């Protein structure tokens, strides 16, 4: 069964195994998510399941008044986030069903997607790990980008030239993270390794292909 769980990154810490070895881990809050829409080939042109995460407070319904009817169809309270994932068969899913950590087992592997930390505008040294210019007196080329293109021919800068610009805040996926602990009561998931983004970042969790599950 294919599924995705939305959650938030709590932070990183370390745990110790039976031999006393330190293991870096990331603590996540995942789910519960609720199925808000089922898309089929006949109605939407493809099979997919839409889920909602993070139930909103009643006094915030005015902000999402245009889509309140969408949640009434599935009999689910309005959620802050909506996402969908494609499936081959929609018969195993029902509107209003809950997707939580009961579907993830300890020792399995997951793929986690999130946005990296945004660092604003950055120069070539920080963004592309370029070497700086000479620091001697009169150099005038300490952190300058230098030449970026040819002269008369072709008379332009080629696409993809590595230059200064926006750094971070990009979607990244870390694959095959091992699940070390699962707490379905508190919706806490502990995985080995690091996860993209800062504390509180919204993440997507899905089973890895290493689990030999049928998608």
Summarize the structure.
The chain has 215 residues and is mainly β. The protein has two domains: 1-31 and 101-132 and 170-215, Beta Barrel (Elongation Factor Tu (Ef-tu), domain 3), CATH 2.40.30; 33-99, Double Stranded RNA Binding Domain.
How does this model look, in words?
This protein is mainly beta and 215 residues long. The chain has helices spanning 41-44, 68-74, 124-128, and strands spanning 5-16, 22-30, 33-39, 48-55, 79-86, 98-99, 109-115, 121-122, 165-166, 171-183, 188-192, 202-207. The strands form 3 sheets. A 6-stranded antiparallel beta barrel has the order 1-2-11-10-7-12. Strands 5-4-3-6 form a 4-stranded antiparallel sheet. The radius of gyration is 23 Å and the shape is extended. The mean pLDDT is 86.
Q: Which residue ranges are poorly predicted, with pLDDT under 50 across at least 5 consecutive positions? A: none
Per DSSP, the total helix count is: 3
**CATH top level label of the largest domain:** Mainly Beta
Largest sheet: 6 strands, antiparallel, barrel
Q: Specify the structural class.
A: mainly beta
Order of SSEs? EEEHEHEEEEHEEEE
Q: What best-fitting shape do the alpha-carbon axes yield?
A: extended
Q: Give the amount of beta strand, in percent.
A: 35-45%
Using only CA atoms, what is the Rg?
23 Å
Percent helix: under 10%
How many DSSP-defined strands? 12
Average the pLDDT over all residues and give the rounded result. 86
| CATH-scheme architecture of the largest domain | Beta Barrel
CATH topology of the largest domain: Elongation Factor Tu (Ef-tu), domain 3
Name the CATH homologous superfamily of the largest domain: Translation factors
> Widest sheet: strand order?
1-2-11-10-7-12
Q: What is the CA–CA distance across the termini?
A: 6 Å
The count of domains is 2
């Amino acid at each position: 069964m294919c599924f995705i769980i939305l959650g938030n990154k709590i932070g990183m810490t370390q745990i110790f195994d039976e031999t006393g070895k330190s293991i870096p881990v990331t603590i996540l809050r995942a789910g519960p998510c609720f199925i808000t829409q089922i898309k089929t080939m006949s109605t939407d042109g493809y099979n997919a399941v839409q889920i909602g995460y993070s139930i909103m407070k009643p006094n915030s319904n005015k902000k999402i008044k245009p889509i309140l009817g969408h949640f009434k169809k599935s009999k689910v309270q309005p959620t802050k986030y909506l996402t969908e994932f494609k499936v081959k068969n929609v018969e195993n899913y029902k509107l209003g069903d809950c997707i939580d950590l009961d579907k993830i087992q300890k020792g399995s592997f997951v793929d986690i997607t999130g946005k990296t930390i945004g660092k604003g505008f950055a120069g070539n040294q920080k963004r592309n790990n370029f070497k700086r210019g000479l620091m001697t007196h009169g150099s005038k080329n300490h952190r300058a980008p230098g030449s970026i293109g040819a002269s008369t021919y072709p008379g332009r800068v080629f696409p993809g030239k590595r230059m200064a610009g926006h750094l971070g805040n990009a979607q990244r996926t870390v694959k095959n993270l091992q699940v070390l602990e699962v707490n379905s009561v508190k919706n806490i998931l502990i995985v080995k390794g690091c996860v993209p983004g800062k504390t509180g970042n919204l993440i997507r969790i899905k089973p890895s292909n290493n689990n030999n599950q049928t998608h």
